[in-house]
Design a protein that fits this description.
Blueprint (H helix, E strand, L loop, with lengths): L9 H19 L9 H8 L3 H18 L7 H31 L4 H11 L19 H22 L3 H20 L17 H16 L9 H16 L8 H25 L3 H6 L2 H8 L1 H7 L3 H9 L4 H31 L2
Length: 350
């Protein structure tokens, strides 16, 4: 195994906690409350970029860990990816459908379709089930799943010619546009491929490019803090500009995620790796790394039946809900997610 696959970058783990926290605030912020000025509401509405931050980080980590392996053990790679994301996803998704059945005392063909698309992580391929089936925020895992499966093939092409680093995301985006236009027919009742999820490929490839740049220029010296604060500054500027207010058609959305990834998220990640700043020190603390490690569980349970149960039976206060979900996430990470991850890897990766 390449030694880079064993590298632990604590600041990047803490970065995951920030991204998950932004998504929580986005989902729970009272946009209808007249007490909040419009500029604050517009600012918070853009916090969906927490998802974009996860995608760029995924592209970076997968490339940094696996790109230099001359003969990738594909079975071990897939088992490692599966054990990382699927066990907890399966458990929480099962909880969603059990909760639905208990509350409604019914099950029909529609719920069966939702369950199939949810458990197979394919619901983002169908516009009608994009947000409704299973874990609503689980649509992002369809994209993660597709990237994990295809990344080794991207690496093969990029190793042969670095030009593929720039051509592949463009080709995939155009292919997504063609699929969207082809699928836009009345008979397509489930909305198969009517949403161009290929726009997000630019974020994964921004992460790939960052990892390759880091490998090539490990000793590239910049003024300490420059990349960190440039990245943070650009992200804040992006949030203030509220780009989604200007439309969200595919070409504009692709441009938005590309600019955000290249000029905002990627420089920030570079800074967190290379620079010793107040930000990197904070994100590297034991508390933030623990929250980062448990951020995947937090992301899965922060919206859905668990916060609803907390709201109904424990507390209606959002801050209390946040604290309880955070505590549950840490416990589930330590006593369910991590043990299952190690068990599956040990049992099936060899």
């Amino acid at each position: 195994m390449n030694s880079s696959s064993k590298v632990f970058m604590p600041a990047l783990t803490g970065f995951r906690a920030i991204a998950a926290g932004m998504i929580f605030v986005l989902h729970f912020f009272p946009f209808s409350n007249p007490a909040f000025p419009d500029f604050i509401k517009n600012f918070i509405r853009e916090w969906h970029i927490g998802v974009d931050m996860f995608f760029v980080l995924s592209g970076f980590l997968i490339t940094y860990r696996y790109f230099d392996q001359h003969q990738l053990n594909f079975r071990k790679y897939i088992v490692n990816r599966f054990s990382r994301i699927y066990p907890m996803y399966f458990i929480i998704t099962a909880g969603v459908f059990v909760d639905f059945y208990i509350r409604n005392q019914l099950w029909n063909t529609e719920k069966t379709v939702e369950a199939i698309l949810s458990f197979t992580m394919t619901k983002a391929l169908f516009t009608e089930y994009f947000f409704t089936a299973g874990i609503s925020q689980g649509w992002t895992l369809t994209l993660e799943e597709l990237f994990y499966i295809t990344a080794p093939f991207y690496f093969i092409l990029i190793k042969r010619n670095r030009l593929w680093l720039y051509l592949l995301p463009l080709i995939i985006f155009i292919f997504g546009l063609l699929l969207k236009n082809t699928a836009n027919v009345a008979a397509n009742s489930w909305g198969f491929m009517q949403t161009n999820i290929a726009v997000y490929i630019f974020e994964f490839f921004a992460g790939i490019a960052l990892a390759l740049l880091l490998k090539k220029h490990k000793k590239l010296m910049l003024p300490n803090g420059f990349a960190t604060y440039f990245g943070i500054g650009f992200i804040l500027l992006y949030l203030i500009m509220n780009p989604w207010a200007h439309g969200s058609h595919d070409l504009l959305r692709a441009t938005q995620v590309l600019v955000l990834s290249v000029l905002g998220i990627a420089p920030l990640l570079w800074g967190l790796i290379h620079e010793r700043t107040l930000v990197s020190r904070f994100l590297s603390t034991d508390t933030m790394t623990l929250l980062g490690k448990s951020s995947y569980v937090f992301y899965l349970i922060h919206k859905g039946f668990i916060p609803i149960l907390i709201y109904d039976y424990i507390a209606e206060n959002v801050a209390v809900i946040f604290v309880i979900i955070t505590a549950l996430s840490v416990l589930m990470f330590k006593y369910i997610e991590e043990p299952l991850n190690h068990f599956i890897r040990k049992r099936y990766a060899k």
